[in-house]
């Protein structure tokens, strides 16, 4: 009986992975979470590891912040502003048609309201355009753009020289942390 009890209390541990395999696994988790936007649970399932392990890696590497930086890159912000400008321009054209109809109907009150709305929209569009110009002028590169560039570089490196890529994983993480502090 004592034998069975001691066997039940024993924790079975998996053998430790070699350092290179461990780093590959960790970087795969990084790619799934930071680059592809998967959850920690999905990542753990995909890699066959515990959520706790993925959570520890994510916390240590500040993956949440890195993922947010990728999502809030200047490129994304600029594209969002361009979309607002496009939508405002489309609405402005619609208003012009509505003004023409109000003129045909001799509805001076509606025409005045539409012209006021058109002026507000034009003013708003001009402010967004100015914001976009300033952003493009002032931001030589943002953290998000740096991360995009590093993604391109290291993706190509991984494809052309996997060994060299593996040797740079620690450097990649160090450099991203450093630039996150500088450009934050």
Number of strands: 0
Basic shape: elongated
Helix percentage: over 70%
The ordered string of helix (H) and strand (E) elements is: HHHHHHHHH
Q: Can you summarize the main beta sheet?
A: none
Q: Structural class of the secondary structure composition?
A: mainly alpha
- Whole-Å distance between the termini? 60 Å
Oligomer: single chain
Ranges with pLDDT <50 over ≥5 residues?
none
Write down the Rg. Answer: 27 Å
**Helix segment tally:** 9
Chain-averaged pLDDT: 84
- Strand content is under 5%
Explain the overall architecture.
The chain has 184 residues and is an all-alpha fold. Among the domains are: 76-138; 141-184. The protein is built from 9 helices and no strands. The protein has helices spanning 2-9, 19-35, 40-47, 51-61, 63-71, 74-104, 108-138, 143-160, 162-183. Helix 2 (19-35) runs antiparallel to helix 3 and helix 6 runs antiparallel to helix 7. It is elongated and about 85 Å long. The mean pLDDT is 84.
Structural features:
9 helices, mainly alpha, single chain, 184 residues
In short:
By secondary structure, the chain is mostly helical. It has helices at about 1-10, 20-35, 40-45, 50-60, 65-70, 75-105, 110-140, 145-160, 160-184.
Write the layout of secondary structure elements.
Blueprint: H1 2-9, H2 19-35, H3 40-47, H4 51-61, H5 63-71, H6 74-104, H7 108-138, H8 143-160, H9 162-183
Helix pairs in contact: 2-3, 2-5, 3-4, 6-7, 8-9
């Amino acid at each position: 009986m004592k034998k069975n009890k001691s066997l039940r209390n024993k924790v079975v541990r998996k053998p430790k992975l070699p350092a290179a395999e461990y780093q590959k696994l960790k970087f795969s988790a990084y790619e799934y979470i930071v680059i592809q936007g998967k959850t920690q649970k999905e990542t753990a399932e995909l890699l066959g590891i515990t959520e706790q392990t993925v959570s520890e890696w994510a916390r240590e590497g500040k993956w949440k912040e890195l993922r947010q930086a990728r999502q809030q890159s200047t490129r994304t912000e600029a594209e969002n502003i361009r979309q607002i400008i496009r939508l405002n321009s489309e609405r402005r054209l619609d208003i012009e048609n509505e003004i023409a109809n109000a003129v045909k109907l001799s509805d001076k009150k509606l025409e005045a309201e539409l012209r006021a709305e058109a002026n507000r929209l034009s003013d708003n569009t001009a402010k967004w355009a100015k914001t976009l110009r300033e952003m493009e002028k002032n931001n030589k590169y943002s953290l998000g753009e740096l991360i995009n560039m590093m993604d391109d570089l290291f993706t190509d490196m991984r494809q052309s020289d996997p060994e060299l890529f593996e040797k740079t994983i620690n450097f990649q993480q160090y450099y991203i942390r450093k630039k996150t502090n500088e450009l934050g």
